[in-house]
Write a structure and sequence with these properties.
Helix 8 crosses helix 9. This protein has 366 residues and is α/β, with parallel strands linked by helices. It is globular. It has two domains: 211 residues, Vaccinia Virus protein VP39 (Rossmann fold); 121 residues, OB fold (Dihydrolipoamide Acetyltransferase, E2P) (Beta Barrel). The strands form three sheets. It has an eight-stranded mixed β-sheet, with helices on both faces. Helix content is 32%, strand content 29%. The structure holds S-adenosylmethionine. S-adenosylmethionine (SAM) binds next to helix 6. S-adenosylmethionine binds next to helix 6. Dual-specificity methyltransferase that catalyzes the formation of 5-methyluridine at position 54 (m5U54) in all tRNAs, and that of position 341 (m5U341) in tmRNA (transfer-mRNA). InterPro entries: MeTrfase_TrmA_AS, MeTrfase_TrmA_CS, SAM-dependent_MTases_sf, TrmA_MeTrfase, U5_MeTrfase_fam. It catalyses: uridine(54) in tRNA + S-adenosyl-L-methionine = 5-methyluridine(54) in tRNA + S-adenosyl-L-homocysteine + H(+); uridine(341) in tmRNA + S-adenosyl-L-methionine = 5-methyluridine(341) in tmRNA + S-adenosyl-L-homocysteine + H(+). Keywords: Methyltransferase, S-adenosyl-L-methionine, Transferase, tRNA processing.
């Protein structure tokens, strides 16, 4: 079944992943640190299609080998316990309400280590806002759900808000992160904490050798910017998504962080701005006041574009978080001509899948 986990095979799958990463990026072999995930209940997000039969509803997933045949999911041990335990009571309550049940196509869960739960019900028909909201309020009162959203084509109905507040901790410090429904967040919260710990440790070593401001690209909701803020003198963080930029600014305020500036910029535009091109969105930012000796990148699966890769090489230190070892290997072909590898890590964000999340610290060659 697609939602199954295999804890007895966990170590072997991690060893296989490590080998695959080393096959693609052999240069990291001597310094690789491996972070194992909890072998079950590791995902704070889960999405399920809902299948309707004349008698009942069930959670369904589809095998790519037989995509028209729904496979019933009765529990999901990949998902955190709060999601796993909510699945069946939620479906039973929805089944009792024609308003909530009719046209229901998908249910998405977003949970946090801080104990919040947001559920999105996605419909294939127009939602009657008033009627649905009343039924949804009743549902929320009977189950451990903090926030409930109804979605359909061009409709998004909120009972209150469309986000949760996560609390992530490492090094005896904790930070609060707004995580907005339907936008990027690290799905494995335990692993997200390990990634913050690793990034903080490398950063501490960097600034111990040389004071530095941090230039961060692809900052999302400020996940790394916020946790690294106390290590660098100041941080300029950039991101292409307007929603994520707003969320990062919300997160700076709720964590009372004053030395991070977030700007909505594509990575390739940051390269142009550093090369002297004027951008209205950078009007309030004096690039000359920064002492960028370190750049932090966490790009999407496609890796770095040519301009951004070129810009990265101007910095003494490059911290690179990758969700795709193939594009990491491609980027390292260039970056390792100017920089040496100092350390590397594998973070098992997605156990039992082929996905590999990793990190490297590169330092300019002597
Ligand atoms: C892998 S996520 C990392 C987000 C963040 N660092 C985190 O840990 O939550 C990649 C981010 O890059 C952003 N992105 C995608 N293409 C971009 C581009 N060309 N320039 C800037 N940001 C981009 C996405 O919106 C997304 O937030």
């Amino acid at each position: 079944m697609l939602c199954q986990v295999f804890p007895q095979q966990y170590q072997q799958q991690l060893a296989d992943k490590q080998q695959r990463l080393l096959d693609l990026v052999p240069s990291i072999a001597d310094s690789l640190q491996v972070y194992a995930s909890p072998p079950k209940h590791y995902r704070q997000r889960a999405e399920f299609r809902i299948w309707h039969t004349p008698e009942r509803l069930f959670y369904a997933m589809f095998d790519s080998a037989n995509p028209k045949q729904p496979i019933e999911i009765t529990s999901c041990p990949m998902a955190c316990e709060a999601i796993d335990q909510l699945m069946q009571p939620l479906l039973a309550a929805i089944s009792d309400s024609d308003t909530l049940k009719n046209g229901l196509f998908e249910i998405d869960f977003l949970a946090t280590l801080s104990g919040e739960m947001l559920v999105t019900l996605i419909y294939r028909k127009k939602i009657d806002e008033q009627v649905w909201s009343l039924a949804a309020q009743k549902l929320r009162e009977t189950l451990p759900i903090n926030h409930l959203i109804g979605r359909s084509r061009k409709q998004k109905i909120l009972l209150d808000q469309d986000f949760v507040i996560e609390r992530l901790a490492t090094d005896n410090q904790a930070w609060l992160f707004q995580q907005i429904e339907n936008s990027f967040t690290q799905p494995n919260a335990e692993m997200a904490q390990n990634m913050l710990a690793w990034a903080r440790e490398q950063s501490r070593q960097i600034v111990a050798q040389q004071p530095s401001d941090l230039l961060e690209l692809y900052c999302g909701n400020g996940h790394f910017s916020i946790a690294l803020a106390d290590i660098y003198s100041s941080v300029l963080a950039t991101e292409i998504s307007k929603t994520s930029v707003k969320s990062a600014q919300f997160n700076l305020a709720q964590n009372a962080i004053a030395n991070v500036t977030v700007v909505k910029m594509a990575a390739e535009e940051v390269a142009q701005a550093l090369a002297g091109k004027a951008f209205n969105r950078m009007a309030d930012v004096d690039l000359n006041r920064y002492n960028f000796k370190t750049i932090f990148v966490d790009p999407p699966r496609s890796g770095l574009d040519d301009l951004t890769r070129g810009m990265a090489t101007y910095h003494d230190n490059i911290l690179y978080i990758s969700c795709n070892p193939e594009t990491l290997a491609h980027d390292l072909d260039t970056l390792l001509t100017t920089h040496d590898l100092v350390s590397a890590a594998l973070f098992d964000q997605f156990p039992y899948s082929h996905h590999i999340e990793s990190g490297v610290w590169l330092r300019r060659k002597a």
